[in-house]
Amino acid sequence: MKSLFKCIDAHTCGNPVRVITEGGPILNGANMSEKRQHFLKEYDWIRKGLMFEPRGHDMMSGSILFPPHNAENDFAILFIETSGCLPMCGHGTIGTITVAIEEGLIIPKIPGKIRMEAPAGLVEIEYKKTNKKVDWVKLTNVKSYLAAENLTVDCPELGEITFDVAYGGNYYAIVDIQPNFTGIHNFSANKIIQYSQIVRERINKKYPATFIHPENDTIRDVTHMMWIGNPINPTSSGRNAVFYGDKAIDRSPCGTGTSARMAQLHAKGKLNVNEEFIHESFIGSKFIGRVEKVTTLKNGVNAIVPSIQGWAKIYGYNTIIIDDDDPYAFGFQV
Ligand code: PYC
User: Fold this and answer.
1) Of the four, 22, 131, 161, 277, which is 20 to 30 A from 328 by CA?
2) Of the residues 123, 137, 224, 262, which should be mutated to test ligand 1's pocket, given the most ligand atoms within 8 Å of the CB?
3) CA of residue 102 to ligand 1 center, whole Å
4) Residue ranges of the domains in the chain?
5) Which CATH number fits domain 2-141+314-323: 3.30.70.2740, 3.90.120.10, 3.60.15.10, 3.10.310.10?
6) Domain 145-296 is in which class?
């Protein structure tokens, strides 16, 4: 059987976003979290075929758009990626909104504002458009919080490292500069990937069933690692290398990662409400982050509402076939 997908390919600050405009499945569920579960059970072959080699690559990431479940909202989104289907993705949101507005896939109820249903919750978005191009997208993310502090794990070559875990739409183990880790500016991307593959597995083994979202237990475990370093531009607030999937370092500063980082810094008294947080990616591209306000989760845990602003560019129109007589129809990893 041959399945055909129309896609618009873009990148957000260097990281890919493949927006599937035709060929996505019809999913069951009362919200995007339930639809995400349905997709994972029956349609994950679409993600694998479109994200992994030979049609994608280690960093490939994308989205499929759905009608909203609540008439007040503009649309709903499923994130697909080499790592799975993320509950939330910041760079994916910025790229998808840019594509959707420039290509007329969404007509917002209020121009310049969009309400998006993600599996992790409602995300409110603003964007600025000039001459048919979107200049920037700012998303107000789901509630983000510091989940644990000063945990330890043994890292190959480095020895014991200390880390915090924070949630910004995904759970991040955040490794700050410390005696056994001198910062990403002293390491290659390959080294960070090598360490992350082992350390993430060790963290989830050492702290089983520890990181489970109190309001949605389908969101669980440390899925991403964030390693910190000195910024390239001294006026930036910080720089990170975010590891996701099995071999990817985010080329953007990572929206959910930046949200988690701001939740961690705010909880530790190192970032104030309304203070601008300019976060650099491994390649030096930037997001502008901000703690919009403080809040609590339903269980009373302190949290923040973060915002992230960035830009994206469309670079291609793609018609992709997944033909099940192709031995690599559903991708491969080396
Ligand atoms: O921007 O949230 C993000 C993200 C998650 C994984 C890669 N990018």
Assistant:
1) 22
2) 224
3) 22
4) 2-141+314-323, 145-296
5) 3.10.310.10
6) alpha beta
- Ligand 1 mutation pick, 88, 89, 167, max ligand atoms within 8 A of CB: 89
Task: Return the SS3 of 221.
Answer: coil
Whole-angstrom distance, CA of residue 290 vs CA of residue 201 = 31
- Please indicate whether residue 7 is annotated as part of the active site: no
Could you give the CA distance from residue 249 to residue 253 in angstroms, rounded to a whole number? 10
Instruction: Decide: 256 in ligand 1 pocket, CB within 6 A.
Output: yes
75 CB less than 6 Å from ligand 1?
Answer: no
Reported pTM: 0.98
Return the biggest CA–CA distance within the chain. Answer: 57
**pLDDT tens track of the chain, all 334 residues?**
999 999 999 999 999 999 999 999 999 999 999 999 999 999 999 999 999 999 999 999 999 999 999 999 999 999 999 999 999 999 999 999 999 999 999 999 999 999 999 999 999 999 999 999 999 999 999 999 999 999 999 999 999 999 999 999 999 999 999 999 999 999 999 999 999 999 999 999 999 999 999 999 999 999 999 999 999 999 999 999 999 999 999 999 999 999 999 999 999 999 999 999 999 999 999 999 999 999 999 999 999 999 999 999 999 999 999 999 999 999 999 9
Tokens of 239: 């720089």
**Distance (Å) from CA 91 to ligand 1 centroid:** 5
Cα 123 to ligand 1 centroid, rounded to whole Å: 15
* The two structure tokens encoding residue 137: 């997208």
Phi-psi group of 300: left, alpha or beta (phi > 0 → left; psi -120 to 50 → alpha; rest → beta): left
Its ipTM equals 0.99
Q: Do domains 2-141+314-323 and 145-296 have the same CATH topology?
A: yes
- Say if CB 238 and CB 185 are below 8 A apart: no
Ligand 1 neighbour 310 (Cβ under 6 A): no
